[in-house]
Amino acid sequence: MPDRSSPTVRRLPVAAIVFDLDGTLIDSAPDIGGALNQLLAEADRPPLTAGAIRVMIGDGSTELVRRAFAATGAALPEDRLAGTVRRYIDLYAAHPVSPGCVYPGVHETLKALGSAGIRLGLCTNKPMRVVAGVLPALNLARYFGAVCGGDTLAVRKPDPAPLVWALDRLGLPPAEVAARAVMVGDGRNDVLSARAAGMPVVAVSYGYSRVPAVELGADGVIHHFSQLREALDRLP
């Protein structure tokens, strides 16, 4: 991919934006927590608090389940991990989606970006089985021309491959990624993935990052989703 550190890279009008989901577009922690605590109850483990769950989100279902069991007793044996993760996904997929979990300004901003001709994609570490239910339930599926879940490829964020995959399906040539594509997310995985793909990244401050958004090394930080258009105009 093009190297954004090169002085030859010049910002052009944004052609494509790839978004993270959890902590960026939706506050999924309550729904994740409901399914996760149900899983823990089935294993005779105590429930986790909302605050504890929030800092576990972002690295995919396997890490989430592994962290939840480690935080509530003995670590889950590796030979039971895959089956337990499948059970968690079953519970999460069956869990009703909270209609109010979309962050303020998301629908309006995504609609405006699409109307401006900007191609929109989604790149999340959430399993596609869950994503396929969440997006339509929240009326978000209509905005995205490409959706990459945590199990779409053999790797996931912070690897750059999911971003590259999404941008390819949005029709953005690799030579234009550095100058015309942007990643928007809430955590270190989003920033690292964007950097590895050679594209700038905007971080939201209200998500699930374990460190303050200003310390993630993003090219811009916004505190409300409606500030994204202005942040895009300020990219170096």
Oligomer: single chain
Largest sheet: 6 strands, parallel
CATH architecture of the largest domain: 3-Layer(aba) Sandwich
Question: What fold name stands as the CATH topology of the largest domain?
Answer: Rossmann fold
Helical proportion? 40-55%
The CATH H-level superfamily of the largest domain is HAD superfamily/HAD-like
Q: Secondary-structure element sequence?
A: EHHHHHEHEHHEHEEH
Total number of helices:
10
Instruction: Kindly state the number of beta strands.
Output: 6
- Rg of Cα set: 18 Å
What is the percentage of strand-forming residues?
Answer: 5-15%
CATH class of the largest domain: Alpha Beta
Major β-sheet strand ordering: 3-2-1-4-5-6
Class inferred from helices and paired strands: alpha/beta
Residue runs with pLDDT of under 50 for 5 or more positions: 1-10
Q: How many structural domains are formed by the residues?
A: 2
Label the overall shape. globular
Would you tell me the overall average pLDDT?
Answer: 94
Terminal CA distance reads 18 Å
Brief characterization of the structure:
With 236 residues, the protein is α/β, with parallel strands linked by helices.
Explain how this protein is built.
- This protein is an alpha/beta fold.
- The chain folds into two domains: 16-26 and 102-233, HAD superfamily/HAD-like (Rossmann fold, 3-Layer(aba) Sandwich), CATH 3.40.50; 29-94, Putative phosphatase, domain 2 (DNA polymerase, domain 1), CATH 1.10.150.
- The protein is 41% helix and 10% strand.
- It has ten helices and six strands; from the N terminus they run βαααααβαβααβαββα.
- The protein has a six-stranded parallel beta sheet, with helices on both faces.
- α6 (128-137) links the parallel β2 and β3 (146-148).
- α1 (29-42) packs across α4 and α3 packs across α4.
- The longest helix has 17 residues, at 78-94.
- Mean pLDDT is 94; it is low at 1-10.
